[in-house]
Specification:
This protein is an alpha/beta fold and 395 residues long. The protein has 2 domains: 354 residues, Rossmann fold; 32 residues, no CATH class. The protein is 38% helix and 15% strand. The protein has 14 helices and 12 strands. The strands form 3 sheets. The protein has a 7-stranded mixed β-sheet with strand order 1-2-3-8-9-10-12, sandwiched between helices. It has a 3-stranded antiparallel β-sheet with strand order 6-5-11. A two-stranded antiparallel ribbon has the order 4-7. α5 crosses α6. The longest helix has 23 residues. The chain is globular. The two termini are 39 Å apart.
Length: 395
């Protein structure tokens, strides 16, 4: 069944459009991160029914596009449509998208096979954006525009764009792309709102300044970050080198589900021994060739010399999730002599912290942990009723 036909069937039974609440809305934030968890639940359990809010209905899931990107479309009871962009996957192309962090001008053209993706993410000529994420929008934009236009024909013009991690970065960049389209490409009646969770940065200071003035200052774009999550500090910038020289190698290899050590090779360590700007440029060119080997010819505009990424505004900080105490060796509990040696605290846990497993570096980044943290922060009663405070697969 064609995308347009499917959406028309779903929308046929919907009544007239109504506005969602303006500004940061804790209910919307809770619902958006729940929707972001859909992809995780589908991967782990083959169904996402347990995590989808009751007032949302999934009406479409795209096929795989470009660098293993995918998105879902939901509609809620107030007739607001949600575009939910998937985060990183185990596919090496997905990680090529992340690490292709050389910047390109925020307005220009990317040649993708025989097509020209003419884009504008910002009007400022000094603005620059993440090349990998810009390329992802190049693969996604046509189909998403078709989705939006299909909704428009049924009188729906209110959209929330959301995503976690890479999906959050794409949500911010997609918002910038859509808002800069001309009147003959997209209806100006459309109203967009953005919620990103644990998203890497997507552009330089000039890009962020323009994005903030257009969307964050009007309280229509929000970036939710866990205080201990390291991913929102990415990509590398000049001022980050001291921190990442110590931590970057561990950060990219800590995820037990994603093995990208071979993808970045020893060159990642050398990034700190040479001029960072030149290395990012060279690394970007190499990454482009590897992507092209899989997807066909790709030509980027001339890379920007600027690699200083800048955070977007309207940052909403949420509390870290407490990692459970998991014994490295449960046989201790059955060994009377060891139980006498290892003393316990009043709460029943062992005082010696070395007996417990160390929290994985990316534990705080997991989408479900963002979900449980938001419940704990804004909906304590719902959090108390949450049977699963963290997913076993994330431990």
């Amino acid at each position: 069944m064609k995308l347009s036909t499917l959406i028309f069937i779903i929308l046929f039974s919907l009544s007239s459009f109504s506005q969602s609440k303006e500004g940061f809305n804790k209910e919307e934030a809770r619902d958006m991160i729940a929707l972001c968890c859909s992809f995780t639940f589908l991967d782990f359990y083959k169904t996402d029914t347990a995590i989808i809010p009751a007032n949302y209905k999934k009406v479409f899931t795209s096929g795989t596009l470009g660098m293993d990107n995918k998105y879902q479309i939901f509609i809620n009871s107030s007739k607001t449509a949600v575009i939910n962009l998937r985060g990183s996957t185990e596919n090496i192309l997905s990680w090529m998208e992340n690490i292709h962090s050389a910047m390109i001008p925020a307005e220009g053209k990317i040649k993708i096979s025989e097509d020209n993706f003419e884009y504008c993410f910002a009007k400022d000529t000094a603005a620059a954006v993440h090349a990998g994420y810009a390329l992802a929008i190049g693969y996604l934009h046509k189909e998403i525009l078709q989705v939006i236009n299909t909704f428009n024909k049924k009188g729906i013009y209110k959209f929330i764009i959301t995503g976690h991690s890479q999906g959050g970065a794409l949500a911010n960049l997609l918002r910038a792309y859509l808002e800069n389209l001309s009147n003959n490409e997209i209806s100006k009646e459309n109203v967009f709102k953005t919620y990103s969770f644990g998203a890497p940065m997507v552009g330089n200071r000039e890009f962020s300044k323009e994005y903030n003035s257009k969307f964050c200052a009007k309280n229509t774009s929000f970036n939710i970050v866990n205080l201990l999550d390291k991913v929102p500090l990415l990509p590398l910038s000049y001022n980050d080198t001291n921190y990442f020289k110590k931590n970057f190698a561990g950060l990219i290899s800590d995820n037990e589900n994603i093995n990208i050590k071979n993808a970045v090779t020893d060159g990642v360590i050398n990034i700190f021994e040479n001029n960072l700007s030149e290395y990012i440029k060279t690394f970007g060119e190499s990454t482009s060739k590897q992507i092209a080997n899989n997807l066909g010819k790709i030509e980027f505009p001339k890379y920007s010399k600027d690699i200083n990424y800048s955070k977007l505004g309207n940052t909403i900080e949420i509390s870290p999730v407490e990692y459970p105490k998991i014994l490295k060796n449960t046989k201790i509990l059955k060994n009377d002599s060891l139980m006498r040696v290892y003393k316990k605290a009043p709460d029943g846990s062992f005082i010696n912290k070395e007996l417990y497993k160390k929290e994985p570096l990316v534990f705080q980044h997991r989408p479900y942990n963002y979900y449980s943290s938001i419940l704990k922060s804004y909906f304590p009663e719902e959090y108390k009723l949450l049977k699963i405070k963290f997913l076993p697969e994330n431990l």
